[in-house]
Each structure stands twice: as C-alpha cells, then as structure tokens.
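Dear colleagues,

As part of the handover before I leave the project, I'm documenting each prediction I ran so the next person doesn't have to rerun anything. This entry is a single chain, and its sequence is reproduced below.
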Amino acid sequence: MRISPKMILTTTAVVALAACSTEAPQAAVDEGSTDAMMDSAATAEPGTIVDVAVGNADFSTLVAAVTAADLGATLSGDGPFTVFAPTNEAFAKVDPATLTALLTPAKKADLTALLTYHVVAGKLTAADVVKAITDGGGTATLTTVQGGMLKATLDGDSVILEDAAGGKSTVILTDVEASNGVIHAIDTVVMPG
C-alpha cells in the first residue's frame, strides 16, 4: 500500500530525522536515559519534540544537527510530527567526515535535505505504523517532507525502515510523547540516497 500525502493528512503521518556522529558505535540505547525519558513523559506535560530531544543525552548529536540546519523552530511548531530519531549510537555508525562536512555552513542545504528526508507531517504511533504495514500487505511507503520515500516493514515485532539507498534501521523505542507529536528512536541513520 502506498501512503499518499493526502491519505497521511487525513489519517496520520510520520516525521523522521537523522544526522551523523563521530562517536564509536555502541550496542544499545542507555537504559537509564530511556527510562528517564519515559518517566518524564509519563509524569509531566511533555515539551515539544525539540524539548524532548534536548532533554535526553542520547539525542545530543541529533540536536546539534537540527540546530545547525536551523530546524529547531520548525520542529517546535504546532505539528503534529512523528520523529524516527537516531540515537547517538546510531549516528556513530556514519563516517565521521560526513558529519563534519554536514555541520559546516557550506553544507547547510545538504543537512536540511537529510533531516527533512525523515520528516512527514502528522502523528503516527507505533500501532499506526504496524497497521499501515499490515494493511499494505507487509510494506508501508512513507512520503517525507524532503520528497523521498521510506519503506516500513516488520521483522517479527520490530519495525524496520529502509531508506532510498537500501540501508535499514530498526525502531528501538516507540511512542515517546511530545506536545507536538511523537518520537520513535532508531538504531541506524537512514539516508536519502
């Protein structure tokens, strides 16, 4: 099933962000910060997507990239948005030279394109993503704000995102609420091509 922009706006949609890091790869998200993020979301009115990301050390590289691309105000806006947000460990899988280049003022347009490749207007919970995959016979195509596509499939109970270059990422944390959407953490940066 192909999800068109019109269908997304009338039902729900996905926002995905990605960036790069110079840190060494690690196996998993720090459970302490994940627990803290979940506890915070459960006990208080959540902030915007940017506020939630800023409040979690596992997303510091993502926050740096969003800041460098001047997308903070957009992602703090009304939304709603859904973010497939790579953790620092996910960013660490990308060549360090790529991050360095993308964070320079000369590459701001490229960084913006990379980040907006992961953005689709609307809010899509984990259950919504799984339903779209099931309704699509095993695949859901998500149209990004950048204009590219992400393919979502299931591997057991895990949602797998496939980017335009054929790279794959697994959703490792779902449904972290924000006042203007929801965040799903991913284990690998997805690239537009």
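The first helix runs from residue 5 to 10. DSSP finds nine helices and seven strands in the chain.

All the best with the project,
I.
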